[in-house]
Amino acid sequence: MALLKFLMCSVFVLTFTARAAHMSPSPPVKAAYWPSWFSESFPPSAINTALFTHIYYAFLMPSNRSFTFDLPETTKAELSQFTSSLRRKNPPVKTLFSIGGGGSDSDLFARIASNAKSRQIFIDSSINTARKFGFDGLDIDWEFPKDTTEMEYFADLITQWRKTIDREAKLTSRQPLLLSAAVYYASEFRTYGEPRSFPAAAISKSLDWINVMCFDYHGSWDTTATGAHAALFDPHTNLSSHYGLRSWISAGVPRSKMVMGIPLYGKSWTLKDPYVHGVGAPAVGVGPGDQGILTYVQVKEFNEKTKATIVYDIRTVSAYSYINTSWVGYDDVKSTTTKVEFAQANDLRGYFFWALSYDSGDWEISTHASKAWVDDQY
C-alpha cells in the first residue's frame, strides 16, 4: 500500500521541488456546496464547520432581462440566515454564493459576458449582493461556454470582475471579495460542441481558484457498461481526474489555484450478467436511485439493507457494491482520503464536495477528508 501511494503521488511530473517553492503557501481550501433547496431538511446551522474552510450557497441566477440579482424576499431572508448562521458557528467559515449550476441557462451567461456594459451591470450587482448579505466571495458555475467565442467571453468576464472587485475593495477599505469558478474536469473540451479550451491565462490572473469538477465521467447517458464516475485513474480512457488535473497544469494554471472536486454521491447500473461485476462490466440500464443516482447516505442504506458485496477498485481508486444485477459505484472513506492525499501531495489548493447533506449523519466522509489533509505540513 505504501508503494501504491508513492506511485500515485508521483504520477505528475513535477517541474520544480514542490516543498522549496512554498515559501508562503496559500491557505488550504476545504469546501462544499450547500444546495439551497434542502434548506428545510438541512439548514446551514446543521453544518459542522470544523470540517470546512469555505461553504458555497448554491445557487443564484441573475435576471434574464436586467442581468441583476432581483431576488424575492424569501431568498433574501435565506441568504441572511445562511451567512449569519455560519458566522456564528465555532469555528466560522468563509461563505460564497455560487451563480449558475448544472442545468442553468448557459445562453444567458453568454449574453451577459458578450459586451462590457452588460458584464459591468452583472458584476456590480453580484458585488452589491455579496456585500449586502455578508458573503466573503463569489463563484460562477457556467456549464459550459460552448465554443471558442464564449470562452473569450468568459475570459473577459472574469478579467473585468477581478478589476471591479479590487477597485471596490480599495474604495471601501474592505477585504477584496473572493472570486472562484466551477469548471470542467479538463482544461480542454473534446465533446459537447467544437474543440475549445478554457482561458488559462485569464483564470490564473483573475480567479482565486477554480473548483475542478472531477466527477460525472459516467452516468445514465451510457447504460452499456458500469463506470467509476469519479475515477482518479482510468487505464483505458482520458475520463479520469488524473488526466483532467494534469491538463489544467499543462495549460498553465498554478496548482495553488486548483481545488479538486469529490462527489458525495454514486451512480448505479443494472448488470447484464450478475456474475460479471467489475468496473466496466456490461450493463443494460440504470440501477437503484433517482435516474441511477444515490447520495452517499443512500448508498450506505442500500449496502446495509441488501447486504451487498462491497469492493474497492485499486485501478480507479473507487468503490462499488453489487447484489444480483444491481451495481453502485461511489467514493468511500478509503477512496476519498486517497484522493485528498493525492491532491495535497501534488500541491493543489484543496478539495471540495458536491454536496453538503449527501454525507452520512455522522459526517463520515467529510471527517476523514479533513483529517487526511495535513494542515501543518509546511
Automatic annotation (TrEMBL):
GO terms for molecular function: chitin binding; chitinase activity. Residues 28-376 form the GH18 domain. SUPFAM superfamilies: (Trans)glycosidases (SSF51445), Chitinase insertion domain (SSF54556). It holds the Pfam family Glyco_hydro_18. Residues 1-23 form the signal peptide. One of its GO terms (cellular component) is extracellular region. GO terms for biological process: carbohydrate metabolic process; chitin catabolic process. Keywords: Glycosidase, Hydrolase, Signal. Belongs to the glycosyl hydrolase 18 family. This is Class V chitinase CHIT5b-like.
